[in-house]
Amino acid sequence: MTDKELYEGISEKRNDAFLFLYNNHINSIINMVKKNSGEEEDAMDIFQEGMIALWVNIKKGKYVLDGNTKVSTYLFSVCRNLWLKKLRGNKKIVSLDQQEREYAEETIEEDDTFEKIQKLEALFSQLGEKCRSILHEFYYKKASMKDIALQFNYEEKTAKNEKYRCMQRLRAMYN
Questions:
Q1: pLDDT, averaged across the chain
Q2: Which spans in the chain are helix H?
Q3: pTM for this one?
Q4: Would you say 113 and 77 are in contact if contact means Cβ atoms under 8 Å apart?
Q5: Across residues 56-73, what is the average pLDDT?
Q6: For 103-139, b where at least 16 C-beta lie within 10 A, e where not — what string?
Q7: I want to staple 103 with a disulfide (CB 3.0 to 4.6 A). Which of 30, 45, 53, 134 is the partner?
């Protein structure tokens, strides 16, 4: 399902769009919550709240699909912010309508984070293929430097230096 189809499907409250997001992205939310002092049940709650926030923000025009935006990135960002808020002790029990209003208001704060993510994604795509691959393996796939060295036919120390140089390029572009 393309991002455009996903965006439209969520806007129209189509089950296939919600199921697609669930099937393809629940594990990343579970991993994020578990790595940050949570349980799978917490992740399921956060994912559900994130889906509601995504739908509300689309309906209210606070999240609009553009060429550089991925629905999954936005959903992950919303879920991460919801989990961090919960960890900070902001555990109010409120009605669904009130939650929807709060999430729509929180989007103002999330927009700044989301814009930073979009900027990083755009800059990341401007890196060379080798740098993108190395950083993707290390940060996204959590590959060890030893595995990266083997994959790119480097010595482990060379792989570390390459990763460092790539991060320096990305940092320089970001600033």
A1: 82
A2: 3-11, 15-35, 40-59, 71-87, 96-126, 129-135, 145-152, 156-174
A3: 0.51
A4: yes
A5: 82
A6: bbebbeebeeebeebbeeeeebeebeeebeebbebbe
A7: 53
Q: pLDDT by residue (tens digit) across 135-147?
A: 888 887 888 999 9
Residue with tokens 């900070």: 88
In the chain, what percentage of residues exceed pLDDT 70?
83
Copy the structure tokens of residue 5. 């189809």
Domain ranges of the chain: 3-123, 129-174
The residue count of the chain comes to: 175
Structure tokens at 90: 């902001």
| Burial class (CB within 10 angstroms; exposed 0-12, middle 13-18, buried 19+) of 6 | buried
